Amino acid sequence: MITIFQDVALIVIGLAGGLAVGSGLVAFITVLDIIPRLSQIIKGREYLVAFQYSLVFGTVIFTLLDFRSIALQLPGIITILVGVYAGTFIGMLAAALTEVLNVLPILAKRLNMAEAILFLLMAMIFGKITGSLFNWLIFIDY
Description:
The protein has helices spanning 2-32, 34-41, 48-67, 76-101, 103-110, 117-139. Helices cover 82% and strands 0% of the residues.
């Protein structure tokens, strides 16, 4: 009897947590206007619905793969392409957050570096790249 109660409690807690995290992500993407902004940048308003479906289907498919513990044995070139696309999405998400919060102009103004905002941005980019490479090459044990 206790195990059934524990199983039901775990299911309810898991679903509640998933709904909370999923709702937060959707709200975050909606507030940042990722999809409409992306279609505006690439001048592809006709692909707006395709972007939305891609985001939803990608999330659902990879969530199911994760739940089933399915590992895709893809060739190296496909893995590189998936990594590039995932990195591009994360970069765009970070850029959208930065744009919405006006982080760079505020930071440049506080550091009295308004005329050097390009160098500030490049320092952030190269710092992220260097940190990522250091993590992948040094800390991850293959």
